[in-house]
Amino acid sequence: MDIPLTTIAVVGLGTMGTGIAEVLARAGREVVGIDISEAAARQAVASLEASTARSVLRERITEQDRRDILARFRTFSDLQAAADAELVIEVVPETYEIKQQVFRELDAVVSPTAILATGTNALSVTRLAAESQRPERVLGLHFFNPAPVMKLVEVVSSVLTAPPAVESVTRLARELGKEPVAVGDRPGFVADGLLFGYLNQAAAMYEANYASREDIDAAMKLGCGLPMGPLALLDLIGIDTARTVLEAMYSASHDRLHAPAPVLGQLSEAGLTGRKAGRGFYTYDAPGGQDVVPDALTPADSAGAVTGREVSSVGVAGSGTMASGIAEVFAKAGYSVVLAARSQEKADTARARIAKSLGRSVSKGRLTEEARDATLARITPAGSLDAFADVDLAVEAVAEDLEIKRQLFQTLDKVCKPGAVLATTTSSLPVVAVAKVTSRPEDVIGMHFFNPAPAMKLVEVVRTVLTADDVHATVREVCVRVRKHPVDCGDRAGFIVNALLFPYLNNAIKMVEEHYATLDDIDAAMKLGGGYPMGPFELLDVVGLDVSLAIEKVLHGEFRDPGLAPAPLLEHLVAAGCLGRKTGRGFREYARR
Q1: Pairing of β 444-449 and β 115-118
Q2: N or C, which end of the chain is more exposed by having fewer CB within 10 Å?
Q3: Global model pTM greater than 0.85
Q4: Exposed / middle / buried, residue 456 (Cβ in 10 Å: 0-12, 13-18, 19+)
C-alpha cells in the first residue's frame, strides 16, 4: 500500500526536532512544528531562518528557495495542529510518561491511516505502540544529531508494526537523502547500542584513574581515527542523556558493560551534564559553549620536571611490518638505527621494505631524494641482537607471544649497555612480565606504536610499577622528537585503545549472531551514525580475526567480565581459517590478488 507522506508533523522543537523539521522542509514537505513552549517554537523558526540564510550566502539555494522552505514550516502549540499530517514524528523528552501522553493525544487527533513515529533512541518502541489505539502504525524513526548533516536514519519495527508503514518511512528517508537502516526494537538499536557501551567503558576507565580524560580522548581519536574522543562526545550528547540510554540498555541486557559507570550518575546529579551545562568531563566557556577552558584537572606543563636520558641511537628488534615502520620513524627523525632480525637476510629484507616505503614518499612529493638517502644511511641491518651493544634505546617489535618476548628481553639485558632503555611494543601482553626477566626492570617500559607506524600519530606509553621516572620521561621526549603523540597508561590488558575498541567489536559480532542486523547495516550505521572511518566488520577483517580473538581473550582473562567473552562466531571463523583480508575470507570474502 502506497502511503504518501507530504504533510509531516514534528512534535518537540528542541535541537533534534528543529533539525528534523529543517530536513523535511528543505525536501519539499509541509512541516507542522508543535511545541508547548512558544519560545522553543520561535527558536526553531529562527534557526531555520539562519540556516537557510547561510545556504543563500554560499549559493547552495536561491532566495526564492529560501522563502519557499520557510513558508513550508509552520509552528503551533497544540497537538490538534497534527490533524492533517500523514506522519507524526515525536522527539519529546526521553520518558515513557511524556511520550505515552503524546501518543494518547495523537490517537484522538490524527487520521486512522497516519503513521506515528517515535524518535527515541533508548525506550521500547513496542511498549509505546502497545499504548496506542493503532499499534500497527507505530514505529521508530531515529535520526542522528545534527539531523541536517548526519546521513543515518534507523527505521525501527516492533512486532506490531505493519510492513506498509515501514516501507513508507523508509522511502521517505531515502527521498530526504538519508541512508535508512532497518532494525528491530531493542534499546540503543544498532548505532547507539554499540556506541554507548564504548562510551560507558571510557567513563569507567577515567573514573578508575587509569588515564587522564585528555589521554583517553586523544588515544581514541589518533588510534582509531574517530572524530571525537569518548569523554568529549559524552559531554556533547549530554551525560544525563547517556545515563538514561545506558539504564535502558542494562535493564534489557543485564550486561555489566551497559551498567552506567557511577561517575555518570554523580555528574548528572550534580547538574554537570556536559556542554549544555557548561561543565561535564571538561569545562566549557559557557553553558552551550564549544570551547574547552582550563580547569583544576587540566594537566600542568610538566616539561623538564624529570630529565630523561640521552638518546642518539636506537635498536629495533624484528623484521616484520611493524619493526620496519618503527625503524623508518626513528631514522626519519635523525636517530642512528640498528635494525636487528634473526638473520642478516631478514634484516636486509626489512631495510629494503623501508627503502620501498621511502621511495613511495618521494614519488608522492612528501620526501626529497636527499632526505630518503640520508634516512636509509642511518639504518644499519644486523643479523644478531649483539649489534645493540651501544644503543641508548632498544625497541622490540617481534611476535605477540609472551615467551618469545621474554627470551628476547633476557638477551637484551645481557647485550645492551647499562642505562639503555628497553621498550616493548606489545599491544596486549603485560609489560611487567617481560621486565621481570631482566636484571633492570626499572629500565623497561611499553611503547605501543600503531600500524602503520610511519602514518599513525599515537604511541601508548605504558609504565609498570617498577619503571623509573627518568625512563618514562625519556620515552615521552623521544615520542615528541619522532612527531608522535604520547599518552600515558598503566600496565593493564588492552591499555587504552584496545581495551575500548575490542569490546565494541565483540558486541557488533554478537548483534550478527543474534540476527538483529546484517553486517552491511551495522557497518553503515557506525560509519554514518557514529562517524567511524570503518565499520566494525571492515575493521575486524583488516586487523585479522585471529589477532582480534587473541586480544579479546586477553581482555576477558584479565577483567573476568562475562560481557567480554569472545563471541562464538568469531571463534568459529578463526577455527575455520577465515582470518580476514589476509586469507581472502573473514566476515566477508575478498578477491585473491
Answers
A1: unpaired
A2: C
A3: yes
A4: middle
